[in-house]
Amino acid sequence: MVIGRHRNTRAIISLEAIKHNVATQISKLKDGQSLFAVVKANAYGHGMIPVAKAAKEAGANGFCVAIIDEGIALRESGIKDPILILGVNPASEAVCMAKHDLSVAVGTLEFLTEAQKLLQEEKQSLKIHLALDTGMGRIGFRNTEDLKEAVDFIEKHSDQLKCEGVFTHFSTADSKDPAYFEKQSQKFDELVGVLKKKPKYIHQANSATALWHPNFEGNLVRMGISMYGLNPSGDVIDETWNLEPALSLESELVAVKEVEAGSSIGYGATYTSSQSEWIGTVPIGYADGWLRRMQGFKVLIDGQYCEIVGRVCMDQFMVRLPKKYDLGTKVTLIGENNGKVITAQDVANYADTIHYEIMCNITERVPRIYK
């Protein structure tokens, strides 16, 4: 996609905030525990390569991605640390992953049997992290019988298949009710008990687990949303660490006009002024990830909350201004402006979603500016 470098709309990323959050998590680790920075989905919209390098500078020991291409991109950027692909991949890609020294999550014997043949033909070996489905229902071995069969197969074909890790993913680590978390934890212990020889990495801790279940088992934290300074639970649980949000989203006023009472604004004429009003136009829209349903929300201009009026367009939206402002006046969609703040959680609450989605929705057309 074309990046809008000649339009004054930008996502500003604080790499110092990334480093601070990683360093804070590392300070909480116990002896022998490591941290992998989760940089999938373009680092949750923050920019994969710059964020990965900042996380490494702060002490991250490795990285997690979702797809093969993300892992390859990290390798091509010069990163030599361990990289784990968390998503499911076809066995036909086993040789590709091996050649790029990518570790892969595996949750079926079928993958192992097909991959082993291909790896043997190409004289390659692949690092495996056994995925255990303890209650997420997404990927992984669900019972001891299937897991034991897979472990036996890996041991029999150790020249091609290297068991580097075993892991699970909690679905309610960010909940106030610990019951399901504890159920998953017990299931994890049961399944891991099948392994006669423990692999290098045993991991179950995502951001929420590391924050609110500090006695988690295992020797690896997969640091995701908290690395970006955001609370994994949204606003369900008060965060206990001093996380620093890493992203702000800014634009400017490109048109300002006074409209008379009874003037309609935007597609569908869904807003009509009740009196003479100043209306400003902001050059960002749903093609940039600012959702159409943000109509009626607010942005910050000169420390003033200004309502979005009319429907958000593909490339622009309009706001009601308290007075006439100069063209080029800064508009803050996420972040601080003259002492007032709009958080990613504020945006998510209005859009009836989670801040993960808000961040990931910011498209490549919006340039990332790194501080």
From TrEMBL:
Gene Ontology cellular-component terms listed: cytosol
Pathway assignment: Amino-acid biosynthesis; D-alanine biosynthesis; D-alanine from L-alanine: step 1/1
Keyword field contains Ribosomal protein: no
Purpose of the protein: Catalyzes the interconversion of L-alanine and D-alanine. May also act on other amino acids.
First-tier enzyme category under EC: isomerase
Cofactor names: pyridoxal 5'-phosphate
Positions contributing to substrate binding: 138, 314
Entry keyword Isomerase: yes
Stored Pfam families: Ala_racemase_C, Ala_racemase_N
Active site, UniProt feature: 40, 267
UniProt EC number: 5.1.1.1
Catalyzed reaction equations: L-alanine = D-alanine
One example GO MF annotation: alanine racemase activity
Family annotation (InterPro entries): Ala_racemase, Ala_racemase/Decarboxylase_C, Ala_racemase_C, Ala_racemase_N, Ala_racemase_pyridoxalP-BS, PLP-binding_barrel
Keyword terms of this UniProt record: Isomerase, Pyridoxal phosphate
Family of this protein: Belongs to the alanine racemase family.
Record PTM N6-(pyridoxal phosphate)lysine, positions in chain: 40
Top-rank taxon, per record: Bacteria
Record protein name field: Alanine racemase
GO BP annotations listed: D-alanine biosynthetic process; peptidoglycan biosynthetic process
SMART domains the record matches: Ala_racemase_C (SM01005)
Residue ranges of every copy of the Alanine racemase C-terminal domain listed in the record: 246-371
PANTHER family: ALANINE RACEMASE, ALANINE RACEMASE, CATABOLIC-RELATED
